[in-house]
Amino acid sequence: MNTTDISPKWLAATPFMDYRHPDVAAFVRAAVGDAASNRDKAVRLYYAVRDRIRYDPYRFSMEPENFRASHTVQQGAAYCVPKALLYAAGLRSLGIPARPGFADVKNHLATERLLKLIGTDLFTWHGYVSLLLDGRWVKATPVFNIEMCERFHVLPLEFDGTRDALMHPYNAHNEKHMEYVCQRGEFDDLPFDEMAADMVRTYPQLVAMAEGRGGDFEHEAIHEE
To answer: How large is the average pLDDT for residues 133-155?
Structure first.
């Protein structure tokens, strides 16, 4: 791909992908270390976001500041959308073009309490990242940390920078895990207003919970084993 085809928007800092924030910059530096190539940098950053930021769907919130990459680093835990935005922000800070992408998925292994809370096994606006490496776009999903995968008997999602890393359809026991229902597309920035309107309409109980009633996803996973 000719560099003239690369939109500056795919490298830009935004209010959500605030990679100039010192906490984000420090996180990226620690993750990348002495990696030299863009591929190695992208892979190292992927595993840092996947495993150093704990997956927790009860960190769900419709407050815009909760989607900022800096907030995710500071909290050390988030659900898929903020984790994807942190990864995209870090990639952009390294000069690697990146776009947050979203899909609706069916999650067959969520906890009973979470499924009851949202009223469906359809998870809308599941976040991933599309990044440009070696002249081609690949997709990566730095969502479930290694401890969470072990808890749910889910195969850890690996990324080598050459192939898409999207959620596995089956877990380690050959049970249904994640099913992609539809793609919403890839964007220059988080389409917050559109996403928030869908979330309020689709998950009113989850939105209400975010206003003050939390949960413990890891404890629920242990309890249901």
So the answer is: 89
Distance of CA 143 to the CA centre of its chain: 5
Please state, in angstroms and rounded to a whole number, the distance separating the CA atoms of residues 18 and 78. 16
In the three-class reduction of DSSP (H, G, I as helix; E, B as strand; rest coil), residue 182 is classed as strand
Pair 97, 79: CB distance under 8 Å = no
CA quadruple 205, 54, 167, 140: dihedral sign: positive
Contact 167, 156 (CB under 8 A): no
CA-derived radius of gyration, the chain: 17
How far apart are alpha carbons 126 and 79 in whole angstroms?
9
What does DSSP assign to residue 137?
E
**Would you state the structure tokens that stand for residue 212, as one six-digit string?**
């003050």
The string of pLDDT tens digits covering residues 16-60 is 999 999 999 999 999 999 999 999 999 999 999 999 999 988 888
CA distances for 50 relative to 31, 53, 66, 84, 159, angstroms: 11, 6, 18, 9, 10
Q: pLDDT (tens digit, 9 = 90+) per residue, 105-118?
A: 987 556 778 778 78
- Whole-model pTM: value is 0.87
Q: How far is CA 199 from the centre of its chain?
A: 16
Report whether 123 contacts 104 (CB < 8 A).
yes
